[in-house]
Specification:
The chain has about 60 residues and is mostly helical. Helix content is about 45%, strand content about 0%. This is Transposase.
Length: about 60
């Protein structure tokens, strides 16, 4: 059996879609863009002025 390559992703996604991908069905119901501002803010990288990476989780 041939190992899938990097460019085989489109074929795999098309197959998932043909089988009834649940994420596609869910995305027709939920507007995921509503969550983008919070995710962008929470995943923002530090500007580098402190010399390190900002910690997302504080212990």
């Amino acid at each position: 059996m041939k190992q899938p390559g990097f460019f085989d992703v489109e074929e795999r996604l098309a197959r998932l879609s043909g089988l009834g991908d649940q994420l596609e069905a869910f995305s027709r119901t939920v507007d995921f863009e509503v969550f983008r501002p919070g995710l962008d803010k929470g995943l923002a990288y530090a500007d580098g002025s402190k010399g390190g990476v900002r910690r997302l989780i504080r212990c």
